[in-house]
Amino acid sequence: MYSIKQLQDIISKEVDQISLPAFPAELYEPIRYLMQLGGKRMRPVLTLMGCNLFTDEIQPSIIPALGLEVFHNFTLMHDDIMDNAPIRRGQATVHEKWNPNVAILSGDVMLVKAYELMMQVSDMHLRQVLNLFNKTAAEVCEGQQIDMNFEQYDTVNVDQYINMIALKTAVLLGACLKTGALLGGASEADAEHLYQFGKKLGVAFQLQDDILDVYGEPEKFGKQIGGDIIANKKTYLLIKALEMAQGTAKSSLNHWLNTQVFIAEQKVNAIKLIYDELNLRELAEEKMQAFVEDALLHLNEIKADQTRKQLLIDFANQLLVREH
Questions:
Q1: What is the rounded CA–CA span in Å between residue 95 and residue 117?
Q2: pLDDT for 84
Q3: For residue 209, what are the CA distances in angstroms to 222, 264, 265?
Q4: Nearest-angstrom CA–CA distance, 220 and 103
Q5: What is the mean pLDDT of each run of 10 residues along the chain (324 residues)?
């Protein structure tokens, strides 16, 4: 059985060895730049862990794990353009460092590269793995579109929001684990339980992202603090604030949401104060924990060695104890 560190090292080595042409540099250099920005590589590591849960022969899952990581980074490159995000993992986003057209085209090539890597799965599993990949890729785009639609809605409820983040973020974690499980010889039932474990964990992870956007430290979080507040993004915290705020708090919230010209720091501080008054950080953390517990119920159903399951639990804990 591999340790998390060993699996991360395997993936890091594979990322370093990705083969990309030198010309035209403006197309391929942004891909190298984004892929080298690091991160925890949790999606490819989960793919390897999904395989390792059932077998020590993880070799068949390494290239598709890399494909899933390339796909994930493709979505980040395009999401950053749509969100007009200036920072990714503590560095300038691709569209800021180059320009939006470069980021769009480089992202397109990343999607092609992801398919090229996924196609290297053995013939025995290829159709099953590609069907899952196609379904997941479409769902991620659906989630992003729903997220953008939310910008036009006056109100969004918690269930709608959870469905959106499940599509935009969580299904990919589930797909990574299920891909690894299928390549590791898991039964369809066990592979599906692992998918649900990853999906529930992904929702929890995104809820934590909402919390860290407000309460994180930029040098540790790696992204702009308060970016969701500045953009009026309907996160769990904002949805609950709109639901719960009354009197002065409601008036202040509506003022900041409808003010077109403002000093970013003032808006972030004012809305954060409302969140604090409503104890929304605690509510969000409780919601996050509920999804973690649901995830663990699915993991318990899987017929696999408890020691190997524990590695997944440890990894989940690492994901959900990011720096505040």
A1: 25
A2: 86
A3: 11, 20, 19
A4: 25
A5: 92 93 95 89 96 97 98 95 87 94 97 97 96 98 94 92 97 98 97 98 94 82 76 94 96 95 94 97 96 95 93 85 54
Grouping H, G, I as helix, E, B as strand and the rest as coil, residue 126 is: helix
- Find residue 87's DSSP bridge partners: 92
DSSP codes joined into one string, 236-283: HHHHHHHHH--HHHHHHHHHHHH-SS--HHHHHHHHHHHHHHTTHHHH
Determine the Cα–Cα distance for residues 210 and 216; give it in Å rounded to an integer. Answer: 10
Q: Give the integer Cα–Cα distance in Å for 82 and 89.
A: 17
The DSSP code for 88 is E
**Phi and psi, residue 33, nearest 5°:** -60, -50
* Percentages of the chain per state (helix, strand, coil), in multiples of 5: 75, 0, 25
Q: What is the secondary structure of 38-79 as a DSSP string?
A: ----HHHHHHHHHHHTT-S--HHHHHHHHHHHHHHHHHHHHH
Residues 6+ apart with CB under 8 A from 319: 40, 42, 201, 205
- CATH classification number, 4-319, choose in 1.10.600.10, 3.40.30.10, 3.40.50.300, 3.40.50.880: 1.10.600.10
| Phi, psi at 36, each rounded to 5° | -90, 0
Which pLDDT does position 227 carry in this prediction? Answer: 86
- What is the chain's alpha carbon radius of gyration, rounded to the nearest angstrom? 20
Distance CA 256, CA 267 (A): 6
